[in-house]
Amino acid sequence: MNDRIPTVEVVDEAGERLAHRAVPAYQTQQGIYTRGTSGFFQSIRLYSGIFLLGMYFLIPWLNWGDRPMVWFNLPDRQFFVFGATFWPQDLILLSWLLIICAFGLFFVTVFAGRVWCGFTCPQTVWTQIFMWAERFAEGDRNARIKLDKADFSVRKLRKKVLKHGLWFAVAWATGFTFVAYFIPARELVIDHWTGQASIAAYLWIGLFTAATYVNAGFMREKVCIHMCPYARFQSVMFDKDTLNVAYDLDRGEPRGGRKRGQAADHSQGDCIDCGLCVQVCPTGIDIRDGLQYECIQCALCIDACDSVMDKMGYDRGLVRYATEHELKGGKTHWIRPRLLGYGAAMLVMCVAFGYALTHRSTVDAKIARDRGALFNETRTGDIENSYTLTIFNKTSFDEIYEVNLTGRPGARLVGPGELALSPGQTRVVVYQVQMAPDLVVSSRLPLAFRIEPSKDAKNEVLIESTFIGPDRWQ
After folding, report:
1. What are the residue boundaries of the structural domains of the chain, listed by start?
2. Segment 206-249, tens digit of pLDDT
3. ∠269-275-278 over CA atoms, to 5°?
4. CA-to-CA distance for 415 and 405, rounded, in angstroms?
5. CA-to-CA distance for 318 and 268, rounded, in angstroms?
6. Superfamily (CATH H level) for 363-468
7. What is the average pLDDT value for the chain, to the nearest integer?
8. CA distances from 290 to 18, 30, 51, 255, 295 (A)
């Protein structure tokens, strides 16, 4: 195998050499030892992570009235979300919500790249916790590298056990909380520790504990680079006006080391080649090599580089959020057709979703006319049609529904005038509609069934149908 390492030259537009550095033809897969950093963007990641994790772990313990604030009650097919009750028939709303989230992600990607991945993605947030536990147990980057290279010792074993113990605790809390969205947390915590929980509960807690432990503890950047589909299609959504974490090549090259406070001469750029931007990167890339699909836009390299620029007495921004047009000295176009298109689509769908959510009916009713016989003639000579009413109570309380006919004077409804349903109950009732022959002036007459709830009259349902009669008038 050839171990030679080729080199690459970085040149400017005039063809003058700016840098000459080695680039490995291949690289053995190694672990990434990230270095801790602080700064503006790291603070945003920290506080946003605390907020998101706080919501995730806290919500199952909060009640809304006499039930959990968010509870997916699968056995009873009820989904309680902040006081609202949803049923499987409302899953179309979930589809709408997912489509809105997709367009929101497209909008954000066109505007500011992969910031979702860097700041709010669950994989990123949980990986942050595991990295914090790792630094707490084993120390910062150099200490961890030294520890992994060291021979086995009681000290090394103690640090490893502490790290994996913290990892497992966070992973278990994650799995337990996930199941608490389906089984009330106060019941689950008692049943879990007394051994009275169902096998399914233990299975799902164990599954999500293992998944969190492996994903955030070992796979980490491999999920972002190799498994996440967003990493693959995000590049087609970028344009020259998209904000990305970028290295200012014109200002930084040619790079080279120098003493603190020493000004760069005409043959040097501002980059001192300290490597901190690589050491803090959670995916292990070098931002100075340009835009790469592995970059999750976490901006840790910006904080690291700014801290070095402050120590050297240089201006900040060698690595910064910038557009391609800006880096080339042009003007960034913030308002552009694709961005406006995604924004408009998301806005329209949000308005439609809000309307559907606030105006959704609390009763689901359907009418099906008997297809076996178009009509019957009663003993009294009336023309009769049969209809099957299927009604579903979507409220969380007992309800009585009054069933009437409308739109066809003289028509008689034969069947129960009121139907009592408990929450989530479905009833199927057969009705007959009878009309005197002289009122059947056509072979097809429109009529409608009115379903009116006794406790929520504003959500009455009007179902249009057709009355079929003889065709002797044709």
Report:
1. 40-86+121-219, 363-468
2. 999 999 999 999 999 899 888 888 877 777 788 888 999 999 99
3. 120
4. 11
5. 14
6. Immunoglobulins (2.60.40.10)
7. 87
8. 15, 22, 32, 15, 10
